[in-house]
Each structure stands twice: as structure tokens, then as C-alpha cells.
Amino acid sequence: MKLIVNADDFGYTRAVTYGIADAFKNGIVTSTTMMCNSPHVAHAVDLAKQNPDLGVGVHLVLTSGTPISENVSSLTDTNGSFYSQNNVFDHAKPEDIEREWTAQIERFLSTGLNPTHLDSHHNVHEHAIALPIAIALAEKYGLPLRRAMNVPNLDVAYNTVKRTTFMMRAFYGEQVSYETLEGQLRNVSVLDKNETVEINCHPAYIDPDLISKSSYVDTRLKEYTILTSDRIKNYVNELGIELINYRML
């Protein structure tokens, strides 16, 4: 059984990026995805290059900050900011999503880094409007794509696009605890040795920028503490789980 532990939101703020990098160096995080519309991209790129064994992909954004491409008016409110996750698909046109996500991928490529995979902020790529676009972009760029849902018919839609066998999301919000993560790890450990799982997470340090932009703040530091603990690292070893990133699929 092989496990990818992916930390979302690389580049969101400087403290988030530092927290993710340290969760890789000191814990079980193996992978992360960069928010390429963030003003802190350059800092994230620097840390990615300092940690070449950390898998870094693209965290496709539709619901945080502002677009980096022009002429995508269906994605933004009157202030020019992305709509919230609650109403973005009341407005978004597929052609604007494709244009903006392509721009984000191209910005990542312009840094000289090679992306390991694609996923999305707030998992918006699982929406019926966005999923075909995400799959098409994964095919275009030859990249794996995060499994949107654990349903059999999804494999037909993904076609040849690489993905994990399962996606586990319980380690979030009020469910962030040692017990939740250990339960997920036990579920991974009983799988066939050739099956792969992603557990996504949001470890971070906290800075004023994060507090001003996100409602998910203190729990990120709690995630960091658990993911870097000897208790969890030893448990992964006891279960014989192989930690990988998307480059190894």
C-alpha cells in the first residue's frame, strides 16, 4: 500500500508555505500543491527548489483571490475577486475556467519547476462543470489529477489520466485528531500493495495574512503538530505504509 500525504495551499501565505515545507521535512507530508494566483508564489517557488524531494503540483484556484488571466468576467464579482465556493458555479462559464486554469498552470511552468499533478482549492474540480476541464488539462499537460470522488464511474471519466485508487478527506476541521488520522492510516494499511491513496491536509504556521484571508486558521497548526509527531511517524512505520508523491504513480 502506498500513501501520498498532500498539503494543500502552498503559497497561500508565507507562514502557510513555511509550515508545509517543515511538515515535509519533519513529518509525513510528501506532496503539496501551489496556489499560482497568490502574491506569494515566488516565496513558494524558492522553498520548493530548496526541497526537491517534496512533490509540488498545481492547486487550481477558482474561489480565492483574483484571476491571473484577463477576460474571465464570469469568475469574478464586482470587485474583481473570485466568487466564493458557495456561488462560483452560479456564474462560471467553462471557457473562462479553462482559460484561467491554463494560465495558472503556465505560471507554474514558467518557474522552471515540473509539476507533479493537479488538484483544486476547495476541491472545486469535482463539480460537474469543472471536472471535464480538469481532466482535459491533465491530459494536455500529461499530469495526474486528484481523484475527485471514490466512485467507480469516475475511472471512466478520467480515462488514461493517472489518479490514486482512493482519496481520504476525513482529516479536516473538527475531525482533525490523532485518532482520525490513525484510523485513515489503518484503512490504508489493509489495501493491496499496489493500491494508492491520497490523504489531503492543510498544515501551516499562522501569520496575520492567513488570519485576514481564511476562516481555517488555528486548526492548520493543529494539523502540523499531528503530522510531524513521533506518534504518527512511528505508526506509519509500524503499519508498513510506503510514503510516495504523485511523481511516483
Index terms:
alpha/beta, hydrolase, carbohydrate metabolism, TIM Barrel, 249 residues, metal-binding, Glyco_hydro/deAcase_b/a-brl, magnesium
Structure description:
Helix 1 (14-26) runs parallel beside helix 2 (41-50) and helix 6 runs parallel beside helix 9 (230-239). 42% of the residues are buried. It contains nine helices and seven strands, in the order βαβαβαβααβαβαααβ. The longest helix is centred in the middle third of the chain and has 17 residues, at 94-110. By secondary structure, the chain is α/β, with parallel strands linked by helices. The chain has one domain (2-248): TIM Barrel (Alpha-Beta Barrel). Strands 1, 2, 3, 4, 5, 6 and 7 form a seven-stranded parallel beta sheet that branches. Strand 5, helix 6 and strand 6 form a beta-alpha-beta unit. GO terms for molecular function: deacetylase activity; hydrolase activity, acting on carbon-nitrogen (but not peptide) bonds, in linear amides; metal ion binding. InterPro entries: COD_ChbG_bac, Glyco_hydro/deAcase_b/a-brl, YdjC-like. This is Carbohydrate deacetylase. It comes from Ornithinibacillus bavariensis. Belongs to the YdjC deacetylase family.
